[in-house]
């Protein structure tokens, strides 16, 4: 087969290239990096692109807001609550032994109408022995509830009084003191600690209502015009979580009270 082809010329022989490259090649112009022509996007495409970028930005902002709303507000409110309880209960005389339950009338409570005034400490052993949140006058969001506190409905009974001591608290965000409301059971203790008494209420019932059903905070819940004869505690909170178009209601009745100088409720003992 090799005999059918002539031997290649010497690599340095320029005549070899003259044989395969025509003289006209010298007239060719080589253009480096020729311009690339792209089709200009339509107005519709540009609008869609802008909308997409805005949606991505909005999604990031909403995500950051959700993290702040759910996580950071809980941390801030719980830290503030711990500091408030330590400060507000400083000087209260307490002993760690178990006190003797009393069934006579508890000490009279001094009334106040000042929004944010400290009334006592809410303790719910079902949520842990260290569970503690302040109870403050009023139900304003910024002044009371968003601090993680339980807010006392104005014009309802005060702690330990005959009638309905009605309170409200967040179920999610800002400390979420009632996050575990669905775990409560009939007979559970709900303890209101004041300077002069541990008021031990026992849970009697819970149910869900619409926000417009405000009769749950009447002196006798859901019975307009009825004369109260019992010492009732009511807690209202949002339902369901993060939707909050209904309210979860908890009612409890005073079972007994304990003089703090005598001891603490057995539910709070180690």
Sum up the structure in keywords.
single chain; 270 residues; alpha+beta; Sortase, Chain: A; eight-stranded mixed barrel; 2 helices; 8 strands; disordered N terminus
Question: How would you describe this structure to a colleague?
Answer:
By secondary structure, the protein is an alpha+beta fold. It has a single domain, classed as Sortase, Chain: A. It has helices spanning 15-20, 43-88, and strands at 118-123, 133-137, 150-152, 163-168, 189-193, 198-209, 231-239, 246-258. Strands 1-2-3-4-7-8-6-5 form an eight-stranded mixed barrel. Strand 5 (189-193) and strand 6 (198-209) form a beta hairpin. The radius of gyration is 38 Å and the shape is elongated. It starts with 14 loop residues before the first helix and ends in a 12-residue tail after the last strand.
In short:
It contains two helices and eight strands; from the N terminus they run ααββββββββ. It has helices spanning 15-20, 43-88, and strands spanning 118-123, 133-137, 150-152, 163-168, 189-193, 198-209, 231-239, 246-258.
């Amino acid at each position: 087969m090799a005999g059918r082809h002539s031997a290649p010329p010497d690599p340095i022989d320029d005549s070899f290239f003259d044989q395969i490259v025509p003289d006209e090649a010298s007239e060719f112009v080589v253009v480096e990096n020729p311009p690339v022509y792209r089709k200009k996007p339509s107005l519709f495409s540009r609008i869609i692109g802008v909308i997409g970028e805005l949606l991505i930005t909005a999604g990031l902002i909403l995500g950051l807001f959700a993290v702040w709303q759910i996580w950071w507000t809980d941390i801030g409110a719980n830290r503030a609550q711990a500091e408030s309880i330590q400060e507000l209960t400083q000087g209260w005389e307490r002993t760690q032994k178990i006190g003797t339950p009393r069934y006579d009338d508890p000490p009279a409570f001094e009334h106040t109408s000042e929004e944010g005034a400290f009334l006592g400490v809410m303790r719910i052993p079902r949520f842990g022995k260290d569970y503690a949140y302040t109870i403050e006058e009023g139900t304003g969001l910024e002044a009371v509830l968003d601090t993680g506190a339980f807010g006392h409905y104005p014009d309802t009974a005060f702690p330990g009084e005959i009638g309905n001591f009605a309170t409200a608290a967040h179920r999610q965000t800002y400390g979420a003191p009632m996050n575990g409301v669905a775990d409560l059971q009939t007979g559970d203790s709900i303890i209101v600690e004041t300077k002069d008494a541990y008021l031990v209420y026992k849970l009697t019932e819970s149910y869900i209502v619409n926000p417009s059903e405000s009769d749950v905070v009447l002196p006798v819940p859901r019975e307009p015009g009825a004369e109260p004869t019992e010492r009732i505690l009511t807690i209202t909170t949002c339902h369901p979580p993060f939707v909050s178009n209904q309210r979860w209601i908890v009612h409890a009745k005073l079972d007994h009270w304990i003089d703090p100088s005598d001891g603490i409720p057995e539910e709070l003992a180690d």
